[in-house]
Amino acid sequence: MSDDRSVVDMDPDVARRLFEEGAFLVLLGVPQGTELGIDCKSWQVGPRFKGVKMIPPGLHFLHYCSVNRPSHGGEIGPKTGLFVTLKPREILLAHWDPKEEDLDFSASQNEEEVSRIRDNLKELDTSLGPYPYEVMRKWVSLTDRLSHEVAMNLQPLSGRICAFSDVVPEIQFRHTEDRAEQPRNDTACQSMKEGLDKLPRMKQREGTELRFSAIPEKMYPPGATPAEITRCSLDLSYALDTVLQNYELRPLDLLGELQFAFVCFILGNVYEGFEHWKSLLTLLCRSEETMRKRKELYLGLIAVLYHQLGEVPPDFFVDIVSQNNFLTSTLQDFFQYVGGPGVDGSLRKRAEKFKAHLTKKFCWDFDADLDDCAPVVVELPEGFSVD
Fold first, then answer.
1. What is the DSSP letter of 135?
2. Backbone angles phi, psi at 102, to 5 degrees
3. pLDDT tens-digit series, residues 226-242
4. pTM for the whole thing?
């Protein structure tokens, strides 16, 4: 990570401004070969690497994978990431902890050490890779609704977003008699269920959980009549309003949570992020009443989805087993509801443009039979291209 071509290709005024106002990530002791990235780009760390310079102030996602020594196979471990917010000319300092195979940022609290680093920035300069300015526009488009406050509230208390969950047994067997009471697993299992029942029940280690908004288990209010249950199951506005209570003062911050979940999955390899993204999108797209009340929320949703869907291949959302495209069926409902009575005209027009864009880009047909579960694809004439 010593290539300065992004600096050479950069507009001189922008380069000068970043030199003057950009922040620094000084990462000392990171082993050679470690896969490390910031925002939408990653590299393999070289022998002289000591961090990243010229970082635009604001919110960023630092992610990395530890690597075993060649003598141990050179295997790359699961990805770890964290959101950080950097101020102009700030120096965020971390040392690599070989025992934990992780970055230790406690040195950033040592004003004397940070001051010493600042005084030696000229000597460090050739070992600091420039921020990948060419991906900054993409990064901003994926996080423009995500504030520092929302990111910190959603990030685990441990400060690390891990691709693999850190799990521990639900029951801690501290005494021999505790283990004796558990089902024995020294006999052959007659079924998969029996085998699973014999395994210890696990839970995520406290403090490592992503703190997403809870999606209601029941989509209807307590004491609802059968008619209300039916209505709330078709129009998910009640469940969406329940989630929006987390953002009572700033409801559009829910779009920030949608972006946070997407980044965790796309850049952090966290599958839980993808599942939460789908859950939030389902609530937003199938809430007809809320659509009529919250025009700005849905104008923002269209903009967020426009940029997110530009980062995935067309068949990304097709379930391998059922061949059902989650996104086409979800957006099909959205376009149906947004065209209904009582929806703001500017929102309806924006949705129509978005629908046309997706139809052209992905060849998805949103006007097919709503009950058809087969993949929905537009048939194009031979030799016709949408590129």
1. G
2. -155, 165
3. 999 999 999 999 999 99
4. 0.84
